[in-house]
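Q: I'm writing up a methods section and want to include an example of the input and output format. Could you take the sequence below and give the corresponding predicted structure tokens, formatted cleanly so I can copy it straight into the document?
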Amino acid sequence: MLSIASFIDHDSYQIIHMTDQTIKIGLVSISDRASTGVYQDLGLPHLQEWLGKTLITPWQAETRLIPDERAEIECTLKQLVDEVGCHLILTTGGTGPSIRDVTPEATLAIGDREMPGFGEQMRQISLNFVATAILSRQVAVIRQQCLIINLPGQPKAIAQTLEGLKDASGKQIVHGIFAAVPYCLDLIGAPYIETKPEIVLAFRPKKH
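A: Here is the clean output for your methods example:
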């Protein structure tokens, strides 16, 4: 399959993609107990199901289930970017204030640039459901041409932060973070992705 070629007009932020390609998406569930079989991991199947119903673009999952060990988290994220070639990585778990929660530290350590808006918006969304959302420490970074986002550990919270809030009629009240992911990937030279608008309406600037 041909690689994607992108040309960016920085004055109009217009991006023209010459061809599409299957995007590799890393899905990393971080849990001491799930990784040792104490209980079944729910994060990975939930993320795969959500992406399967949301993305129109062909994609391939690279899944990892690992313990709350900073060195292993860092190694896993670097391997998914540098060796496997993922352009998007979603992690779940390990973002609270407990001593074993080290996902944000590991993510920041291997990132080239931080993208603080993702964590800010996730906490803002979650505060509509639970007051303890202020205790979450999710971060997002860019490493090379890959966007890495820490998501909450609970499957319900994952969907809420990705999709945002809608009223009874389906009108978007608060945007979820995934609405900004496709354009972010455009800007860092990653493959072009499209979403089903009834689930996530991806934002891209209008072409002039």
